[in-house]
Design goal:
The protein contains seven helices and no strands. By secondary structure, it is an all-alpha fold. It has a domain of about 80 residues: lambda repressor-like DNA-binding domains (434 Repressor (Amino-terminal Domain)), CATH 1.10.260. α1 packs parallel to α4 and α4 packs antiparallel against α5. The protein is elongated. The termini are far apart.
């Protein structure tokens, strides 16, 4: 990944383009340009976004975008093939945990836990019996 970043940085410097010009023209943040030129793949959460950014940046600089994307794909294959199964499982658990924490919570989607449920029919019957009892007590007291 460092090689790809070096190629992009060297091409940009040879053309005399500043990082701020790249940011303006490609509509990206300065930190992203610096990270990609430094070969810092970990700064990007989405590998597909990184791939498309490399492609667009290479095209912007007049480099062969297919060659750089192929080089990135090879790097990515080598990088992912070195991951252990434990690291993959750990990442999957963290992703599931993040999804649960970032779930949209609105009054319409919140799952409410119901405690004790009394059907409305039973409530109406109890209210009716209470009214009859009150009427009975009033009649007896006259």
């Amino acid at each position: 990944m460092k090689d790809i970043g070096d190629k992009l940085r060297e091409a940009r410097e040879n053309m005399g383009i500043s990082i701020s010009e790249v940011c303006t023209d490609l509509n990206v943040k300065e930190r992203q340009v610096l990270d990609i030129e430094a070969g810092n793949m970990e700064a990007f959460k989405d590998v597909f976004y990184l791939k498309y950014f490399i492609r667009d940046y290479a095209k912007y600089l007049g480099l062969n975008k297919e060659d750089l994307v192929d080089e990135f794909n090879e790097y990515l294959f080598d990088y992912t093939s070195k991951l252990s199964l434990e690291e993959i499982k750990k990442a999957q658990k963290e992703e599931k945990k993040d999804k649960l924490e970032n779930k949209i919570k609105s009054p319409y989607t919140i799952e409410r836990k119901r405690g004790f449920y009394i059907p409305p029919v039973i409530i109406y019957v109890l209210i009716g019996l209470l009214i009859i009892l009150l009427l009975f007590l009033i009649i007896i007291s006259l």
